[in-house]
Amino acid sequence: MGRHIEPRARHNLVLFILNVVYIFVIGIFEGLGDLHFVYFTCISLIFFVSILTIKDTSKRYFYLPTAVVILTWVTEFLDMPYLSRITGIVSTIFFLYVIVLLIIRVANSKSVGTLEFLESINVYLLLGIAAAILFGAIYSFDHSAYNPPGEILKSHSDFIYYAFVTMTTLGYGDITPNDSVARSLSIFFSVAGQLYLTMIIAMLVGKYLSREPKDQT
To answer: For 123-142, how does the pLDDT look when each residue is reduced to its tens digit (9 = 90+)?
Structure first.
């Protein structure tokens, strides 16, 4: 039992650190130069560690993140709008797959501890990253899909920012969707973000309260 939990906790911790770096840290240094390589390296690591958090006992599952990583890098170097949209959709499906399995794992857990909280946080961060990738893919295909605060949107940090502003329904209004697809996806991720927070908090609190009588006895 201990051998199974230890790698699971380690993988979730590494995934959390990578998520934090990708979302919060890299963008701080954008004024220093082009950080495309840093962003794509970090997201590639997130793909692999994400699959480790749910399938750490089977190497065959690495084919899935490997294919997504290759597609992501090919899209970046070839600069093909059509391929960019496909990559965005595939990456989003991959993250949604990981997210669903992590939610099922948390829901099936008999107790609530640090690991369950960490997995719940990773789910939310991965949902935001998936949204950012999909928004970026749409913009690369059609620059009129969003109204940027300046002439153009930056390739990564602006979409990470827009994704989490949308999911939290903060709505500063500096970046706004401009066509039907962009608006529909913005609605989807805003609803998904709020539903997830409501459901996961209720689930974790319910599990925590249900264990208290047993602990007291």
So the answer is: 999 999 999 999 988 888 88
Q: Find the range with the poorest average confidence among 3-17, 47-61, 193-207.
A: 47-61
Task: Identify the domain containing residue 45 by its residue range.
Answer: 2-216
Distance CA 152, CA 33 (A): 17
Residues in the chain: 217
Bridge partner list, 177? 146
Q: Please name which of 109, 111, 159 lies closest in space to residue 132, comparing C-alpha atoms.
A: 159
Strand partners, 146: 177
Which residue has tokens 């946080």?
121
Q: DSSP character for 61?
A: G
The total of structural domains in the chain comes to 1
Residue at 38: amino acid letter: V
pLDDT tens sequence across 74-101 = 877 776 767 778 888 889 999 999 999 9
Show the CA angle centred on residue 44, arms to residues 43 and 47, nearest 5°: 85
Angle at 121 between CA 8 and CA 173, to 5 degrees: 150
DSSP for 82-137 reads HHHHHHHHHHHHHHHHHHHHHHHHHHH-SS--HHHHHHHHHHHHHHHHHHHHHHHH
15 near 53, Cβ under 8 Å?
Answer: yes
Question: Tell me, what's the pLDDT at 188?
Answer: 95
Q: DSSP string of 8-28?
A: HHHHHHHHHHHHHIIIIIGGG
d(CA 72, CA 74): 6
